[in-house]
């Protein structure tokens, strides 16, 4: 037989240690019912995403994303390059593009813009991605919005 220790709460009611333990276990069990952070997100990233930013040597960035099963995203990226990165010759501005691949999980979005850099962030609204754009060891904040003509 488990001994019961009686405690009084602020109102003078008796609450046993066993009851407190049962409530704690039930609370933890319910809290553990959420999806794992690395599980694929049920929110689709499919569509055209644009960022009105000038980071490193790229501006007018656009991603055309295809949402694949199990949280995988693929597609193409497009940008205007100042030259020297993202497929532009050194000191020669150009319009450039490449492939993209990444993951859309419950906790974050990771997209590699092949030949340009990497986006890491989250879908903060249905049509808004916010995070960082990293090139090598450097990074800066960026926001992408979904839709035509933002």
List key phrases describing it.
150 residues, mainly beta, Lipocalin, 2 domains, 8-stranded antiparallel β-barrel, two-stranded antiparallel sheet, 1 helix
Structural overview:
- The radius of gyration is 24 Å and the shape is elongated.
- The longest helix is centred in the N-terminal third of the chain and has 15 residues.
- Helices cover 10% and strands 51% of the residues.
- The chain has 2 domains: 33 residues; 100 residues, Beta Barrel (Lipocalin).
- The N and C termini lie far apart (68 Å).
- The chain is built from 1 helix and 10 strands.
- The strands form 2 sheets. An 8-stranded antiparallel beta barrel has the order 3-4-5-6-7-8-9-10. A two-stranded antiparallel ribbon has the order 1-2.
- By secondary structure, it is mainly beta.
Structural class: mainly beta
Backbone CA Rg: 24 Å
Give a quick account of the main beta sheet: strands, pairing sense, barrel closure. Answer: 8 strands, antiparallel, barrel
Main CATH class of the largest domain: Mainly Beta
CATH third-tier fold name of the largest domain: Lipocalin
- The count of domains is 2
Elements, N to C (H/E): EEHEEEEEEEE
- Beta strand %: over 45%
Query: What is the tally of beta strands?
Result: 10
Low-confidence stretches: none
Overall spatial form: elongated
Query: Helix content range of the residues, please?
Result: 10-25%
The CATH architecture of the largest domain would be Beta Barrel
Order of strands, main sheet, comes to: 3-4-5-6-7-8-9-10
End-to-end C-alpha gap? 68 Å
How many H/I helical runs?
Answer: 1
Mean pLDDT equals: 84
